[in-house]
Specification:
The complex is a heterodimer of chains A (350) and B (326). Chain A is an alpha/beta fold and 350 residues long. Chain A is 29% helix and 21% strand. Chain A folds into 2 domains: 229 residues, P-loop containing nucleotide triphosphate hydrolases (Rossmann fold, 3-Layer(aba) Sandwich); 84 residues, no CATH class. In chain A, the strands form 2 sheets. In chain A, strands 6-7-8-3-9-10-12-11 form an 8-stranded mixed sheet, sandwiched between helices. A 4-stranded antiparallel sheet of chain A has the order 2-1-4-5. By secondary structure, chain B is of the alpha/beta class. Chain B has a single domain, classed as Rossmann fold (3-Layer(aba) Sandwich). Chain B has 12 helices and 12 strands. In chain B, the strands form 2 sheets. Chain B has an 8-stranded mixed sheet with strand order 6-7-8-3-9-10-12-11, sandwiched between helices. In chain B, helix 4 packs parallel to helix 7 and helix 7 runs parallel beside helix 8. The chains are: A alpha/beta (350), B alpha/beta (326). The interface between A and B is large, with 45 and 47 residues.
Amino acid sequence: MSETKFLNEPLDDKGGPAQPLLIVRNLKKFFPVRGGILGGKKAMVQAVDGISFKVKKGETLGIVGESGCGKSTTARLLIGLIEKDKGEIIFDGQDLGGALPLRELRRGVQMVFQDSYASLNPRLTIEASIAFGARVQGLSDPVGRARKLMERVGLAPDRFAQRYPHEVSGGQRQRINIARALAMSPRLVVLDEAVSALDKSVEAQVLNLLADLRREFGLTYIFISHDLNVVRYISDRILVMYLGEVVEIAPVDDIWNFQAHPYTRSLFSAMPSMDPDNRTKEPPLAGDPPNPINPPSGCRFHTRCRFAETVCSAKAPTLRSLSGGSEHLAACHLHDLGSGHSKAGKELAP
Amino acid sequence: MTENLVDIQKLCVRFDGARKVHAINDLTLTLKQGETMALLGESGSGKSVTLKTLLRLLPPKRSAIEGDIVVNGVDVLTLSGKKLQAYRGEEVSMVFQEPGLALDPVYTVGDQIAESVMRHKGVRKEEALSTALDMLRRVRIPSPERRLRNYPHELSGGMLQRVMIALALACRPKLLLADEPTTALDATVQIQILLLLRDLQKEFGMGVIFVTHDIGVAVEISERIAVMYAGQIVEEGTTREVIKNPRHPYTRGLLAANLHDTERGTRLNAIPGTPPSLESRPDACSFAPRCQLAEPQCLASLPPTHRLSERRRVACIHADAPAFSG
């Protein structure tokens, strides 16, 4: 048995290549905010409010959005760390909670978190941390598996196996977290701001590693980040969230050339310019994102949108294809001819 | 020499704790009146320590400081007592990364700004509060009269950072130190704060030293960039010079790692390895172990500082080599 073969004993491909690896339908999660003397429910944070998307086998889906938009809640729902309120999560054709028990899902989906230190048990050696999941799931030779993976992510097992998380650098700890995720031979890896805390020079090394591992193990990634340049580099498609909803989803080159939703456009123009002769002159948006406890009515972006009209606060737009069958979807009345918006269907001024 | 607002000569900072850390090694830096300089570097490069030394915020018992710092004619390293208190806030003030932690949760933002004005300007509370109101207007906080009576937890992250800037500028310091003030903010809010700082700098004419790890942020805010690595400045020049014609291999690597116009799916030309631990004082080029162009002499002695022009310098033997790709 070759080395990678040994590590690569994933779950069987049940649905075939045409079946999306993950289908999310109308997923909802509200968190109660408690307050008052008796600690009763005061309000609900509408963290994720009815989102739907698909992830194809072998692709990388990038998720971008600002704090409070629900991207991390989405990630946690996908690996069953928190329970959904409503909606469906279908992994390779099997419904989570129905045909697919949570334990099986955790074999197929693994996650790497932003805080490399907080996500490791400080009392376990690196080797023990990586082997832990495989041991719990009853996979063969958890320790041997851990040592081979350490080698693969660039940590010499002889030097690092018996060290503790506080004894290594941030970049090395994130490599440990990646190895631990891979120890379960997952098919989908959710990377939640996995490189955001790293220094730029180390980030590039980890991005190279992620690209290699994807090819080698045939992985599918969901890559969550606030850094558009990183998301563009690694993703095949990009999904943009705003206040718990999906506002746009498109192949990366399409969205880079044309941002259909005014929020996406603002997010892209908020990227610092890299040209000292052509610095940003006007901030694209004023103010902070609204509170997800009491999101605006209709289109949630209408309070900050310069194209907003009455229809935008009255009616929530649906996510629809820009042109028949196009993979570029946006939720904006400007792109819906029947919406009643006066500029609907007209080319947006950049 | 008098035209320099900040003049740091051969600064060395060493921390003597359970283990020794040579955080700053032989750092020389000048800033003219009204200039904005970005100190660009990764974690552990000494950029925040430089700022803290300028404000004398380092714990005196555990830090050994050598060298000279003169800010606006004041010898900073010999200050103590009342003179140090006056220096902080009046001559120099600072904006931190986490405004939520830097502001006191039990006082209203108006009281906090007013307290600093009363203390430094010796005015009565009413007058100080009207200065505070004026400052909130200048940092463009909507309905400033109402915000004056808000507590920090009632404000969003972007608003808090505006308050922090109002507080820092209330006594009209000659020098503003900014320690990654936009790193914790969302992208659409970050650009608002950067442009606000740029406008306020023009309005008040103060000098600014802006610490960041993000090249894009440095380009937006600064006229000059000094790149730090292992407690030293490896390259300095105008923003245009450093971005368009980087000479130090580390600067070139950082620019490549920014992924600004990297082809999707191509392999990144990552700088290998990690920064040194600085347990001993560097006696050779600190970047040499990670450098593609390293030669035996890089590992044998400290690199020479090449002055390409009066205020453009590169600490590398290859500083004169033509730009190479990647």
